[in-house]
Amino acid sequence: MTVARQPGLRAPVPLTAAHANEGLRGLTIKDVNKTFSVTRTSTLSALSGINMAIAPGSVVAVLGPSGCGKTTLLEIVCGLQLPDAGGKIELGGLDVTGRRGHFAYMPQRDALLPWRTALDNAVLGLELKGIVRKEARSQAQELFRIFNLAEFTHYYPKQLSIGMRQRVALLRTFLFPSTFMLLDEPFASLDAITRMNVHLWLLEMWERLERTVMLVTHDIDEAIFLADRVIVLSTHPGAIVLDIEVPLRRPRTLEATTTEAFLGAKRRLLDALGQQVRAFLPTD
Amino acid sequence: MTAVPITIRSTPRSVGAGAWRVAGVVAPFVIFFGGWQLLMAVGPHSLQTVLASPSTTVSYIAHNHSEMLTSLRTTAYEALIGYLVGNLAGFVLAFVLDSNRQVGHVGLALMVVAQSVPVIAFSAVFALWFGQGALPRILIATYICFFPMVLNVHRGLRSIDHIHNNLFKAFDASHVQTALFLRFPAVLPSVFTALKASAVLAVSGAIVGELFGAQYGLGPLLLAGIYYQSPPLLWSSIYLAAAISLTVFTTASVLQRRLAWW
After folding, report:
1. CB B104 within 8 A of CB B164
2. Would you say residue A10 has pLDDT above 80?
3. Gap between the Cα atoms of B138 and B152, Å rounded
4. Interface pTM, i.e. ipTM
């Protein structure tokens, strides 16, 4: 159920010593359920019987409406929450259930620290992993240069546009010493045009720096455009209702979004989501 | 943290704008003291028994400068030590209270009860316990400065964005790293709010403490002013007390602009 990444125009470059030592790793999610207790007697099933395997180097989008538990799933993967008993998260064969620091996580908003410059925000993950700031900075500087952000290194978050802030947050995620990225609706706060620009920028980054990616989103176009595979979650409880491969080649350009292959995938996803929508319409 | 940002202002400030800003700060003082001086000059003579004109007060300070300086030094010393110790203790305690919800609730409740007792009641007790030296006055200043810091920093810690906490957790940051990289910088603005609020309180605390049996300081000077019915002496003490708070407040403001500018 995985798609091998099409070879990019340029060979991927290893970014840091830490990254070079760690190859791409796959993820297995086994029997993950999550139940929240709402009151003393009633419970809410947020996730039900989630099983999936993400192949090393692939980009997988988890698509679903608000409240389908996709953020919960992501937080379980990166160890911020625990699954119900019996659930398991394996990264490259290693059991990481409830263990933190194995994934390059990016939360819903950019979460930049206002007292750090763009460069110092980007190196946060490296610093927390014990790399000296000077060394971390020189690694980040290189990345800023490659991706045309060199002039922004000394800007503070509030001096940056929202799109720029998102790019800096993504660089922070790329620099964290893990080749597995977890992105939690990273573009939800961007306007459509800025979002398109950041999408293209991110695709370009993935071409150069190979990563395995699990991306959570409620945007169908975004899921298709960025991912190799799209998994649709239902609401209440969050369960997998559709799992499709995206028949688009890499590297991708904006033209891909109007091809028949793109629209075909969109039709199937809309259909799966539409059943979710209709489920809430009054019967009769 | 890196050096102080120079580029942080979105629009460069011209020299003229800077001059206007200084003028905006100075003008109200000029008007206030000028008006006061004028009132003393043209007002009824009976005003002289309750007020002293700014020029009279300043020349009174100049004439009695050695005595004034001793008093100033005594009160400033008590206020400053109390200010530093109280704020430091408040800062540490806020982190302790935040570490555990139960401890936080109980601790804050206890402090509110303790702070609701008027400080003047304690100053008499402290004077009885610790005698005529600086110690009881320092303790009053400490006690008074401590509370704003606890409240502000505790609230600051509580209002750290959930998303930042999650990021640090997901990156597997240790407690020490989270404190250094997230919690300390995040509460810096709250720290300076407290430091500015207690700049005035520290001096009040020291003077109130001095009213109970102290031999030196601005407190005894005020008492002497009442005893001798001398407005210039009273107003000199008030000017000097204000000078101490203003210096501490301004220092805190400048540091805030340098260290917690965001």
Report:
1. no
2. no
3. 22
4. 0.88
Chain B contact present for A93, CB below 8 A? no
Helix extents (H) in chain A: 17-21, 70-77, 118-122, 124-128, 133-146, 162-175, 192-208, 220-226, 260-278
pLDDT of residue A4: 43
C-alpha span between B55 and B78 (Å, rounded) = 28
Taking the model in full, what pTM does it have?
A: 0.83
Q: Domains of chain A (ranges plus CATH)?
A: 1-103+179-279 (3.40.50.300), 110-177 (no CATH)
Contact B53, B37 (CB under 8 A): yes
CATH topology (fold) of B64-259: MetI-like fold (1.10.3720)
Residue B44 phi/psi, 5-degree rounding, is -65, 155
Domain range annotation of chain B: 64-259
CA B153-B157-B161 angle, to 5 degrees, is: 140
Total beta-carbon pairs less than 8 A apart between chain A and chain B: 66
Quote the mean pLDDT of chain A.
87
Tell me the two tokens of residue A91. 């990264």
Element (H, E) at A240: strand A240-245
Q: B185, A113: Cβ pair inside 8 Å?
A: yes
Contact B163 A108 (CB under 8 A): yes
Residue-wise burial string across A163-172, b where 16 or more C-beta atoms lie within 10 A, e elsewhere: bbbbbbbbbb
Q: Tell me, what's the pLDDT at B117?
A: 82
Length of chain A: 284
CA B258 to CA B252: how far, in whole Å?
10
What was the pLDDT predicted at A7?
40
Contact between chains at B5 and A156 (C-beta distance less than 8 A):
yes
Q: How far apart are CA A170 and CA A197, in angstroms?
A: 13
pLDDT one-digit tens code per residue, A78-108: 999 999 999 999 999 899 999 999 999 999 8
DSSP A134-190: HHHHHHHHHHHHHTT-GGGTT--GGGS-HHHHHHHHHHHHHHSS-SEEEEESTTTTS
Instruction: Name the strands in the sheet holding A43-54, side by side, starting at the edge strand that comes first in the sequence.
Output: A43-54, A27-37, A88-91, A94-95
Q: What does the pLDDT read at residue A16?
A: 55
A126 interaction partners in chain B (CB closer than 8 Å): none
d(CA B167, CA A239): 26
Residue A116 contacts B, CB cutoff 8 Å: yes
Chain A residues in contact with B5 (beta carbon < 8 A): 156
- Is residue B13 pLDDT above 60, yes or no? no
**Which of A71, A82, A113 to mutate to probe the B interface, most B CBs <10 Å?**
A113
Substitution target in B6, B10, B167 with the highest count of A β-carbons within 10 Å is B167
Q: Identify from B171, B187, B191, B257 which residue to disrupt to test chain A contact, counting A C-beta atoms within 10 A and taking the largest count.
A: B171
